[in-house]
Amino acid sequence: MVVKDALKKLGVHFILVDLGEVDIMENINESQRNELKLALLNSGLELMDDKRSMLIEKIKNVIIEMVHHSEEAIKVNFSDFLSEKLDHDYTYLANLFSEVQGTTIEQFIIHHKVERIKELIIYAELNITEIAWKMNYSSVAHLSNQFKKVTGLSPSHFKQMKDKRRSPIEEI
User: Fold this and answer.
1) In this structure, are residues 117 and 136 in contact, taking their beta carbons and an 8 Å threshold?
2) Domains: count for the chain
3) Domain region containing 39
4) Disulfide-capable partner of 83 in 9, 14, 64, 90 (CB 3.0 to 4.6 Å)?
């Protein structure tokens, strides 16, 4: 909505405004570009001008969408999925991401998967076996090892801590 409002105020016609992407109908001049950049900055957003930065954001968005917002089990080879989705060779995407972000795509995915696992543990709708299947781990042991490497805790210890962090209304 912020991006749409900024574009409307500048009189720029757009076809699509999506997460991290805008498709406008005409070329904008330098003055309009600077005004848009300033309006976005004031709203806590950033105008990305170069193709590398845009590709990095697209990589992040695909990962976040897949890990956090997909209700289906993640049952694909992610490197193939990312290559196909972004129409680039995975090696190129991986090298670019590492160079710009200082971490690998794999580590970025792992950290997001661990955050999603935390969320699933806290909501307690699924047991750890179901979470492992949903998040495409080969086993509960694999999930547990990766979770512990990132958080320093086992999933069961994390779940116990969650219970201790929250006090029942009766005890407040």
Assistant:
1) no
2) 2
3) 2-47
4) 90
3-class DSSP assignment, residue 115: helix
pLDDT tens readout for residues 44-62: 877 766 678 888 988 998 8
The type of residue at 161 is M
d(CA 68, CA 50): 27
172 belongs to a structural domain: no
Q: CA 70, CA 74: separation in Å to the nearest integer?
A: 8
pLDDT digits (tens, 9 = 90+) for 106-120: 999 999 999 999 989
CB 5 within 8 A of CB 14: no
Cα gap 10→19, rounded to integer Å:
20
- How many other C-beta atoms can be found within 10 angstroms of the C-beta atom of residue 30? 7
